Amino acid sequence: MAPRFAARMGEIAPFHVMELLRRASELERSGCDVIHMEVGEPDFPTPEPVLEAAQRFLAAGRVAYTPALGLPALREAISAFYAERLGADVAPERIVITAGASGALVLALGITTDPGDEWLLPDPSYPCNRHLVRTFEGRVRLLPVGPETAFQPTAAMIAAACGPRTRGVMLASPANPTGTLLSLDEIDAIAEAAAERGAITLVDEIYQGLTYGVPMRTILSRRRDVLVVNSFSKYFGMTGWRLGWLVLPDADWVREAEKLAQHLFISPSTVAQHAALAAFLPQTQDELERRRAEFARRRAVLLRGLDTLGLTVPAEPTGAFYAYADVSALGETAERLAQRFIEEAYVAVTPGRDFGEHRADQFLRFAYTTTQARIAAAIERLAKVLRR
Ligand SMILES: Cc1ncc(COP(=O)(O)O)c(C=O)c1O
């Protein structure tokens, strides 16, 4: 008998890029050198002081649960980071440690979303969000955004889109897949427009440390009534450790998150939390800044290269490690081009379709999570394919 799954599963879509990845690994097994520009994770190893902290902790041999909200020392370290680096007063009691930004998003939606509640999300945006909303039986309303607004919603769009069932607005700055930022004024105006209509604003700041020519910022330096998601995955280079955090407005919110976290997760990974304490040491921060400078150089190589290919990046990507390139001038869909790039050039990129529907077949996301030399080689290979 065929297994029966929940109705929601019919609406949970896989990542389309997985097909390409499957093909990429087949090609690699047959000896081809695939250049990976589809992956959303830094290629740098875990910073040395973080590894050492984990090893010291493991050597002591006692790896037990921590409180559901996370290690008090880590919540304090994050609070100090907000004060010292970001000029934001965020008490440790407002910080919930989670299994990555993903865990933070699950908690945020779990404590806010009733069946039928609507969340406004930009299209294109990070694909998991719409599936998480669906998992909690909420509804997603996608707001098409384009280069005119740097692929970000405006306060006017939010004001117009809010309806009686709107529960919240999800933003990301810097954003995936476009690498574009919202200014604090713009986030403030959106949050105000939402609040006036009874909706909350969730800001995903996972790419916070990765900005180029723009200082790192947080909306928490301006407002307290927003939910902020962050992570050790990207700037801190700790994807596989599965650690992030959620900042909530006050103790009432934290109490709800704590109840849910106790049941869903019991506690975040203890080893990862002890390791992450070293993420804020000056020597780690110095290393992370060197990595950011390297990302800036890679970004320059990629943007110059895309330009020589005749591909435009219509909204300047000043953050994260992505460029969202308009490929419509090439006369083929982004999906088809992504297939050709992997088959003919062994270069893997992500088609726009993974991030939404709006003009999705005109865009490809290039991640500069590989070395300058590999990026330059990818551009050369693509130039040959496009000349054919
Ligand atoms: C915008 C955004 N939010 C959240 C996540 C989830 O990250 P993690 O769970 O590794 O912290 C990602 C990962 O790519 C992302 O791009």
TrEMBL record:
Cofactor: pyridoxal 5'-phosphate
Matching SUPFAM superfamilies: PLP-dependent transferases
Record bears the keyword Translocase: no
UniProt GO MF annotations: pyridoxal phosphate binding; transaminase activity
Sorted UniProt keywords: Aminotransferase, Pyridoxal phosphate, Transferase
Source organism superkingdom: Bacteria
Coiled coil, from the record: none
Signal peptide: none
Aminotransferase class I/classII large domain sequence ranges: 33-382
InterPro entries, per database record: Aminotransferase_I/II_large, AspAT/PAT-like, NHTrfase_class1_PyrdxlP-BS, PyrdxlP-dep_Trfase, PyrdxlP-dep_Trfase_major
GO BP of this protein: amino acid metabolic process
Cited Pfam families: Aminotran_1_2
EC number(s) stated in the UniProt entry for this protein: 2.6.1.-
Family from the record: Belongs to the class-I pyridoxal-phosphate-dependent aminotransferase family.
UniProt-recorded name of the protein: Aminotransferase
Native source species: Tepidiphilus thermophilus
Classification lineage: Bacteria, Pseudomonadati, Pseudomonadota, Hydrogenophilia, Hydrogenophilales
